[in-house]
Amino acid sequence: MTVYLSRIAFNMLRTSSGRCLNVTISTETAYTNSNIFFSKNDLFSIVRRGNVRNYSSDAIHPTAALENSSIPLKKKTIHKKAALADLPQKEGHYLTMAYATANSYDLKGLKEALLQQKLYEPGTLQAQEIGDVVVANAVYRVGDEPREIIFFSEGAVVFWNCSELEASNVLDFIKKYEIESYPTEVVDREREVMSYFYQPNAKKCYLQESCFVMVPNKDNSLERYTFSQAMAQSARLGAWEARLEALAAAVSYHTRRMRRTGIAQVDKKEVVRKLGELFALRHTLNVESDLLDTPDFYWEQEELERLYSSTVAYFTIPRRTRVLNERLAHCVELLELLSSWAADRHHVRLEWMVIALILAEVCFELMHFYERSHTRERPRGFDRPTFTSELEENLFQDLSIVDT
């Protein structure tokens, strides 16, 4: 018996000592790993320090993702509109501005008006495949660098080496040839501003941060056109984003009212009108524009295609287009919900009108029934008529005898 009890006590002491040993080892291991991790990346060391615990040997081990946390994460590229004050004010740097002022231009009338004004002369591009574009070169030069304006039929204009005053005068001039003009505050707010300069040792044009690098002593007309089209696309996309913000603000009022009261008092015609504007904006974005794909002109121009793709990526046009489509889909869903709510209210109103007509008809039938029943009972209680002569009284009595 004593031997049996001694064996039980020995086993209990051995297991308890083993557990204490395991705890000590795991704790030291956890601190060792955490110290190694601290030396690699101090940013995540706070999270690791807070997660150190005295676990036993059967605890869950950290995954491989935590061991490889020193791998740098991919950051999203966010385009921030540059201001004139942010551009480098150096000698040899020239200004480039892009505006989106309308859905489209009457380029034929605009070209004739520019020729009549005699301040700009039409320019030419090397490629003949480019259409729906008007290039205007200033007749009078200010300095060695020429001034150039590129008008796109999609309603955008890009100024090269033009001052803000000259750009403002040209924008006022082309208002007569705009189709579905944008608000002035949207045009000014959503403009794109860049600068360009000539690199002496450059062999080809490229984009460097917020500057376009040009090749000196070379015709850079196609490269200017490529940069201009990318900037015009960004300005147009900004105008559409502003338009969607205005539509979303109009819808948000009804959503807040639905959240507070549980009732949406909307006009069906207004909802349908807003839906039409959203669908028109989506059609313009996805069908009429080239934002989802590279324009056909660059398919046979590899160098220009790379230049266009890099400029479009700089302005984050693909990501902004995707986000704009998602926001459009969300606003369309909200308006469709409001439209179904308005349709249900209209149906309920019609049902109540039908019920009211049925009640009115029932009331009229009750009135007619009452009149008919009253006219049937009236002859029984009919009073004896008064006669003017005895002869009439005798005739009335004879008729009564015959009826009986």
Automatic annotation (TrEMBL):
Enumerate the spans annotated as DUF155 domain. 149-325
| The organism's place on the tree of life at top rank | Eukaryota
Signal peptide range in chain numbering: none
Regarding protein family, the annotation reads: Belongs to the RMD1/sif2 family.
The record's annotation in PANTHER family points to: REQUIRED FOR MEIOTIC NUCLEAR DIVISION PROTEIN 1 HOMOLOG (PTHR16255)
Which protein is depicted? Required for meiotic nuclear division protein 1 homolog
